[in-house]
């Protein structure tokens, strides 16, 4: 099954933000494109807006003048649904309401040919539910583009309950022919990206709600240590708190209020108060003229320790040992323990975040996971009231000697980056086990859809088998609500031997 022929007309119904972007993609790929909108005149306005965008592509040398003129000639507003009769693909991008979409597809089915592919760009409705209204749901598929569609490469190709394999393949190949990177996924709440990304926001909000740290500090740690392009607070301010919360709410409801997807009360209050982010002038941060941007917590300079005792190789933080030596600090090895801790001259311990709290131990400082300790510019430390000031000062001085800024947060088990990554990894293993998508497609989707520095499986392989499971198991013990309960899939992965994994016996 191949992509649609470029001579086949493509229709886009609903010519708002997404419809215009999708139409531009199909048009630039070479198809004749018809635009239809329920509001009279809006399709013509959309055609003019797309034409103006093509002009800008010419100015940027991404399109020749002749290509632009040809594309413009292929773009036509359609007054009625009946004008879409000869289209080979209709992509719907109307209001996000099940009854509206079902009604539209019923009308379309009466007009288009039997082999016309029908696609929805829904981000939160069930593809099976929309397709269920059709006489032939076999030709119905989800084609989930990301905003702005002309720029973002990812397209989730969603197969509903009734979708034929040939239709899904055709949609997949067509998206690829349009220069996109398609990933195949089953029809589940949030598809791939909006399902697996939930903990990135939820855990940051949870740290804030537990008084562990303020938004500016959490964002700085996610960026500078976790390697994420933006922190959860600044990113949701950009997306819109109402939009982000509604996705979280819809995924949570669709999973029958699964506690792993519980929305945040703090975000609810923010939305209720009208602080929707940049678009309303205030969200987690204040964007009004003259408003100050709060600084992340950064510790004052402290004296580095003269030496540390390494008990074990530090696991995912192993890079720290040569870095400490390079900084001129002696590392005394004590190899009898396979642990992930450093003992400081104070007698206190410095331990990689593991899902336990520092109050459980006599004198412990936790440090957060970094994507790459060499490249990280900031590292978070967590201490409890039982941590001695000397241990905290030595831990602070140690990371400062490695050129890092240090943010001291409260006694938060799993800290900031570690707990978010562990939960993302868990949801990814769970999704594969439930047939949502392949490991490769999930990694691709998370890198391209939300810009993660690594896909969850790449990250998990780096961290080592069992790391995410152990952290979540510890967190689950301390918060037995079920929110942190590791999935059976992650458990299986943690305990499978390399030989046994993948075998069915
Ligand atoms: N905005 C995003 O970031 C984004 C990303 C991915 C998917 N989506 C999904 O894309 C769809 C459209 O979102 P949007 O942001 O472009 O919305 P939008 O409000 O910008 O545009 C919707 C358009 O659909 C038209 N419309 C409404 N009902 C119609 C009908 N029955 N027939 C024809 N036209 C109709 C409206 O007049 C409007 O022009 C939604 O399903 C949304 O969930 C949005």
What's this entry about, in short?
The chain has 505 residues and is of the alpha/beta class. The chain has helices spanning 17-29, 42-59, 65-74, 98-111, 127-131, 165-177, 193-196, 198-209, 215-224, 232-239, 241-254, 265-272, 320-326, 389-401, 417-433, 439-449, 456-463, 467-478, 488-495, and strands at 10-13, 33-36, 75-77, 89-92, 117-120, 140-145, 154-159, 181-186, 307-311, 330-334, 341-343, 349-352, 364-367, 378-382, 405-409.
Which shape, going by the Cα principal axes?
elongated
Please give the largest β-sheet: 8 strands, mixed
Helix and strand content put the structural class at alpha/beta
Kindly state the percentage of residues in helix. 40-55%
Distance between the termini: 35 Å
Number of strands: 15
Q: What percent strand?
A: 5-15%
Mean pLDDT: 95
Tally the helices: what do you get? 19
Bound molecules: nicotinamide-adenine-dinucleotide
Q: Which segments are poorly predicted (pLDDT under 50) over 5 or more consecutive residues?
A: 500-505
The strands making up the biggest β-sheet line up spatially as: 3-2-1-4-5-6-7-8
């Amino acid at each position: 099954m191949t992509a649609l022929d470029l001579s086949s007309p493509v229709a886009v119904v609903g010519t708002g933000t997404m419809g215009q972007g999708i139409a531009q993609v199909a048009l630039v790929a070479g198809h004749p494109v018809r635009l239809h909108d329920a509001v009279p005149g809006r399709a013509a306005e959309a055609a003019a807006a797309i034409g103006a965008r093509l002009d800008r592509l010419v100015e940027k040398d991404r399109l020749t003048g002749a290509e632009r003129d040809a594309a413009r000639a292929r773009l036509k507003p359609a007054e009625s649904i009946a004008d879409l009769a000869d289209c080979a693909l209709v992509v719907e991008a109307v209001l996000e309401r099940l009854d509206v979409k079902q009604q539209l597809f019923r009308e379309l089915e009466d007009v288009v040919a039997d082999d016309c592919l029908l696609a929805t760009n829904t981000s939160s409705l069930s593809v099976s539910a929309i397709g269920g209204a059709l006489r032939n749901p076999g030709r119905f598929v989800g084609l989930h583009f990301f905003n702005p569609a002309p720029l973002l490469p990812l397209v989730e190709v969603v197969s509903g309950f009734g979708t034929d394999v040939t239709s899904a393949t055709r949609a997949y190949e067509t998206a690829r022919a349009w220069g996109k990177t398609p990933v195949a996924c089953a029809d589940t709440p949030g598809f791939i990206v909006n399902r697996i990304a939930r903990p990135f926001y939820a855990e940051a909000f949870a740290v804030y709600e537990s008084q562990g740290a303020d938004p500016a500090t959490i964002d700085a740690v996610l960026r500078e240590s976790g390697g994420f392009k933006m922190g959860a607070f600044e990113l949701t301010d950009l997306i819109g708190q109402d939009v982000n919360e509604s996705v979280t709410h819809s995924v949570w409801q669709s999973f029958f209020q699964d506690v792993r997807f519980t929305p945040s009360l703090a975000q609810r209050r923010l939305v209720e108060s009208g602080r929707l982010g940049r678009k309303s002038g205030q969200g987690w941060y204040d964007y009004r003229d003259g408003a100050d941007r709060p600084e992340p917590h950064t510790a004052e300079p402290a004296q580095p320790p003269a030496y540390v005792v390494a008990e074990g190789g530090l696991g995912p933080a192993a890079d720290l040992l040569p870095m400490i030596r390079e900084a001129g600090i002696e590392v005394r090895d004590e190899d009898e323990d396979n642990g992930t801790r450093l003992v400081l001259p104070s007698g206190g311990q410095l331990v990689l975040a593991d899902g336990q709290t520092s109050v459980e131990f006599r004198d412990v400082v936790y440090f957060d996971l970094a994507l790459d300790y060499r490249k990280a510019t900031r590292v978070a430390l967590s201490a409890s009231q039982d941590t001695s000031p000397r241990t905290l000062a030595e831990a602070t001085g140690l990371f400062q000697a490695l050129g890092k800024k240090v943010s001291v947060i409260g006694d938060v088990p799993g800290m900031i980056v570690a707990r978010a990554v562990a939960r993302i990894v868990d949801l990814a293993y769970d999704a594969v086990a439930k047939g949502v998508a392949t490991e490769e497609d999930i990694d691709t989707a998370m890198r391209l859809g939300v810009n993660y520095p690594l896909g969850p499986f790449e990250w998990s392989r780096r961290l080592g088998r069992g790391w995410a499971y152990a952290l979540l198991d510890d967190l689950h013990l301390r918060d037995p609500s079920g929110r942190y309960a590791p999935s059976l899939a992650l458990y299986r992965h943690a305990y499978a031997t390399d030989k046994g994994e993948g075998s069915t016996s």
